[in-house]
DNA sequence: ATGAAAGCGCTAACAG
DNA sequence: CTGTTAGCGCTTTCAT
């Protein structure tokens, strides 16, 4: 492993000069010619900065802690992690992920992350809920992902449920459906509210009436199938907007039992939480994916902007890597998530 | 953040003594009475070792790199990560996870991990395949997870497909099924071979004949439904062992169209890859879960044993935390995965 | 049995 | 503009 000392020796300058150059702090402080000689030897030697040594000095590790409650039991987490990792990676940060399912004590995991010097934390829930942020986190920069702070002080990135439902419903309208049902969720979730509103807005915007008879809120298991069944026989919808793919499955089963084929006799749009339908049922089912990647991406970006204490749109993007969502504040409208700046945010 | 210096000051000893004690290297070198005074102040001050500073000296970070190819697109990864995290955490290690889907360049991620000082790597694929280990990894300790090294030199932890299929089929036999079909996978995967053998062995062990007519290997999409349909009408099986839940879904759809109810008229056991069925269809469907958690757990354990250069069964387990798979070599038989020691392993 | 001192690779004052 | 110096928190000889 090449060190600055080595570069200094080979270039015939001091380590401090090398340090300055390697950290792009050489403008007006190091003669350009020397600077470029330093860069050249660094390149030749394949120099990689030693983040450990640096953090020991600076008390900043460029490590982000990602705390999730359910990496093992849902596929959602993966997308978020990936989004966060992408943003982090582009800005020179690293992500350490811990999960608190599987019997891991949350506080212990937070301690471990702190020991390893995390500069800030992403606190992720796997579906938008009012959330208490662990007090251990409050002395660090934190951004919530797919969750809402109970006290309204921590910034969060959440799905735009209204837009998701609006677009899905509009899709069914354009596909020619006459009677569009909403198979919702009976648990009180933040998502449900926005979805219903979006569904309603899309209908009314198309000059249709909102009809309570085709709206059903089913719980997550067994008896749900009966409710969907009733809906089928009583209302004969030809389009279904489903809260998630478990509900989409009820629709499939009911259709099959009635000799109806999805994609021909009826249309279904489901919000895709698991990937099984996406893999199996295309092109019968249109799935809407929750913007997990984007949420992770923007949350990490926001977190870094807090850590480095500069505004979102001031963040300098390395030009080196592949195309990804551009970084301009605010989050582009067509991406279905929103950044909620909260009271605690300096600017 | 309390430092050793502070503890030394308050206890009236030197830092070296504190270091000795905090690293449990004090046996016979520090007077027991002093040692316990040191431990006491450390406890009072809530001392936590600074891993950065330590690694700067020792060139060992107790960081494990977990490289996955698909955290975002499958839910498998989560379980593995969690298992690896559990084992790591119990042995005082930390896991840094990177994924190479989502356009991340694998080599770049490996470089980043190396910069952060990873002591070794877990290289995970999301279904058992013959795999080339990136050459960048070969100068570090590596364990493959759910993958098999093409050159047969890297140790790996893989699912025991035979056992999985054997148990699933036996389950159907005990449930009273007379004619048990195997809905397999037509892609050449390592899993398929073991599953078919396990299915066959279970049948023969129960004194039944293996009957090719109820064995079907369907590809992953569309036309598959027709093959299952044919199987239904031509052979009338009353039990189905499905390669995964996409295939289980075909069986469900066919059953529904024939007015048959799963859990009453026919029985289905599917290997659960996604969670949707587990969440939705209980108790109609019996799912067998792949031992993702266990694979991650054992792989991390093995990796640490390699890093610290001691045998698996020599690993000291902290007694502090919740019950988890016990650590004795070999891996207990009822856990459906196997550790393959390979040529490169010292012992 | 304990402490003093050097040094891991880097950054940041401060001199020059 | 560039180099010298000190020190981040820890481990590790080497004296005592």
TrEMBL record, chains A, B:
Question: Taxonomically, which superkingdom?
Answer: Bacteria
Keyword Manganese applies = no
Q: What PROSITE patterns does the entry give?
A: HTH_LACI_1, HTH_LACI_2
The cross-references to InterPro entries, in alphabetical order and at most eight, read:
HTH_LacI, LacI/GalR-like_sensor, Lambda_DNA-bd_dom_sf, Peripla_BP_I
Q: Where is the HTH lacI-type domain?
A: 2-58
Query: Keyword annotations for this protein?
Result: DNA-binding, Repressor, Transcription, Transcription regulation
Question: Per UniProt, what is one GO molecular function of this protein?
Answer: transcription cis-regulatory region binding
Protein name per UniProt:
LacI family transcriptional regulator
Q: What's the source species' lineage?
A: Bacteria, Bacillati, Actinomycetota, Actinomycetes, Bifidobacteriales
């Amino acid at each position: 492993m090449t060190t600055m000392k080595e570069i200094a020796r080979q270039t015939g300058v001091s380590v401090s000069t090398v340090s300055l150059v390697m950290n792009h702090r050489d403008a007006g402080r190091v003669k350009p010619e020397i600077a470029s000689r330093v860069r050249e030897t660094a390149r030749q030697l394949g120099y990689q900065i030693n983040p450990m040594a640096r953090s020991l000095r600076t008390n900043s590790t460029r490590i982000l802690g990602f705390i999730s409650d359910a990496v093992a039991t849902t596929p959602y987490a993966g997308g978020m992690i990936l989004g966060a990792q992408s943003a982090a990676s582009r800005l020179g940060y690293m992500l350490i992920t811990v999960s608190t399912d599987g019997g891991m004590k949350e506080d212990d995991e937070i301690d471990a992350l702190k020991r390893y010097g995390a500069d800030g934390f992403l606190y992720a829930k796997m579906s938008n809920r009012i959330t208490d942020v662990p007090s251990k986190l409050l002395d660090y920069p934190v951004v919530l992902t797919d969750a809402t702070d109970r006290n309204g002080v921590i910034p969060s990135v959440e799905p735009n449920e209204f837009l998701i439902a609006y677009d899905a419903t509009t899709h069914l309208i354009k596909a020619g459906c006459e009677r569009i049902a909403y198979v919702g969720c009976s648990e009180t979730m933040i998502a449900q509210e926005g979805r219903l509103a979006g569904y309603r807005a899309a209908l009314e915007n198309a000059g249709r009436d909102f009809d309570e008879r085709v709206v059903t809120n089913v719980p997550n298991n067994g008896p749900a199938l009966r409710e969907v069944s009733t809906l089928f026989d009583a209302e004969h919808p030809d389009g279904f907007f489903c809260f998630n793919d478990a509900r989409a499955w009820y629709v499939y089963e009911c259709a099959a039992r009635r000799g109806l084929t999805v994609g021909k006799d009826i249309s279904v749009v489901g919000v895709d939480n698991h990937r099984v339908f996406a893999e199996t049922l295309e092109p019968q089912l249109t799935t809407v994916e929750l913007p997990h990647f984007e949420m992770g991406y923007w949350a990490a970006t926001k977190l870094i902007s807090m850590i480095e204490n500069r505004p979102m749109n001031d963040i300098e993007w390395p030009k080196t890597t592949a195309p990804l969502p551009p970084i301009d504040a605010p989050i582009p409208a067509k991406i279905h998530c929103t950044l909620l700046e909260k009271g605690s945010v300096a600017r």
